[in-house]
């Protein structure tokens, strides 16, 4: 059974937020509205938990009542067995919902992909990963927008930044942070030898305005002429933008768009995400022991997954999961099989740690 006090704390907080929103006197309307929407499914689950618990208690009491006739007892016992199964499922759901949450889980995500060791083959693999995430985002009903991309000579990418907008995008994509390794015969390999290359992925939560406040005085904004491919505007207009956040030293440059205004907006989106994540990482350092043993630390140097083309398999090393459908996973169609397994394992690990505490 879940402690009643734990349930009541959630319900009390939810009702307090409702009262404050109804009063119209709050200056934190956006923040409270967000918390209200996050707590609503938890409250619904708690109410279902309490209702089913009471129904089960009534049925068990009736089945055990010596004054009940045999037919009534049999019916009560049958109903109790049905309610026990339903209650077990609801109880597990409530326990998961009550687990301490990453405050950024409901956020959209910024996905940064960079070619690692392996030269041109690593750049081609980085391009495969970019396409995989775009397809996966589309299947989830999220919006995927390419913020910036630096191409390699053979059609791959040296690096790319993708914005994935949608409720809970970060919660699912955060486990993609780390080193992705590929084993295959490169298109440039004449002898048919298998090469190993790598690409790194960093997934950052995209903060909302209520989550982060950047003072304009802390920014240095430089404009300059774009370089490289891009048409007539290149080297003729100062459309490229470089933004430096002076307190942290974070720098973002953007020249993808012909419009200086659009480049600035994209650069600010990435800048906010990097500063937000930097602060989250600083806070997480103090909780490092708590994170130990959970699925993925988010460490970008951690090798998390291998894509072996000759064997048609994908192996996620954190949860010892191997699937023999590489083509569908790298296409993005079945990436969800790995993502969902990682989410489930993370929940199970945290639930076990919570119950052992």
What does this protein look like?
By secondary structure, the chain is α+β, with helices and mostly antiparallel strands. The chain is 47% helix and 21% strand. The chain contains nine helices and eleven strands. It has an eight-stranded mixed sheet with strand order 2-3-1-5-4-9-10-11. A three-stranded antiparallel sheet has the order 6-7-8, covered by helices on one side. A hairpin with a 4-residue loop joins strand 7 and strand 8 (250-254). Helix 1 (4-23) runs antiparallel to helix 2 (29-64). The longest helix has 36 residues, at 29-64. The radius of gyration is 26 Å and the shape is flat. The model is unreliable at 230-235 and 289-294 (pLDDT under 50).
Write the layout of secondary structure elements.
Elements: H1 4-23, H2 29-64, H3 70-97, E1 108-115, H4 119-139, E2 143-151, E3 157-165, H5 169-173, E4 178-184, E5 195-206, E6 219-224, E7 240-245, E8 250-254, H6 260-285, H7 288-291, E9 303-308, E10 313-316, E11 321-323, H8 326-330, H9 335-356
Parallel strand pairs: 4-9
Antiparallel strand pairs: 1-3, 1-5, 2-3, 4-5, 6-7, 7-8, 9-10, 10-11
């Amino acid at each position: 059974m879940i402690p009643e006090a734990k349930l009541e704390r959630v319900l009390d907080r939810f009702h307090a937020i409702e009262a404050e929103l109804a009063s119209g006197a709050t200056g934190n309307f956006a923040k409270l509205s967000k918390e209200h929407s996050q707590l609503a499914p938890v409250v619904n689950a708690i109410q279902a938990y309490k209702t089913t618990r009471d129904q089960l208690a009534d049925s068990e009491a009736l089945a055990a009542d010596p004054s009940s006739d045999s037919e009534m007892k049999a019916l009560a016992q049958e109903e109790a067995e049905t309610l026990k199964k339903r209650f077990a499922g609801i109880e597990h759901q409530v326990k998961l919902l009550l687990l301490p949450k990453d405050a950024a889980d409901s956020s959209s995500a910024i996905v940064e992909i960079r070619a690692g060791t392996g030269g041109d083959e690593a750049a081609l693999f980085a391009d495969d990963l970019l396409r995989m995430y775009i397809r996966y985002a589309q299947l989830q009903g999220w919006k995927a927008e390419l913020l910036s991309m630096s191409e390699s000579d053979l059609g791959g990418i040296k690096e790319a930044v993708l914005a994935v907008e949608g409720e809970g995008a970060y919660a699912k994509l955060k486990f993609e942070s780390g080193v992705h390794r590929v084993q295959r015969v490169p298109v440039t390999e004449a002898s048919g030898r298998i090469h190993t290359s790598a690409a790194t992925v960093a997934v950052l939560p995209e903060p909302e305005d209520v989550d982060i406040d950047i003072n304009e005085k802390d920014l240095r904004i430089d404009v300059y002429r774009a370089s490289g491919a891009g048409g007539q505007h290149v080297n003729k207009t100062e459309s490229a933008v470089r933004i430096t956040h002076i307190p942290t030293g974070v720098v973002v440059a953007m020249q993808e768009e012909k419009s200086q205004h659009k480049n600035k907006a994209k650069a600010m989106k990435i800048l906010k995400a990097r500063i937000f994540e930097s602060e989250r990482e600083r806070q997480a350092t103090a909780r490092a022991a708590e994170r130990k043993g959970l699925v993925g630390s988010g460490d970008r140097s951690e090798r998390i997954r291998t894509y072996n083309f000759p064997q048609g398999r994908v192996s996620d090393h954190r949860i010892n999961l191997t699937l023999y459908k590489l083509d569908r996973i790298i296409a993005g169609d079945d990436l969800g099989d790995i993502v969902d397994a990682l989410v489930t394992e993370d929940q199970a690990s945290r639930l076990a740690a919570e119950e052992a505490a």
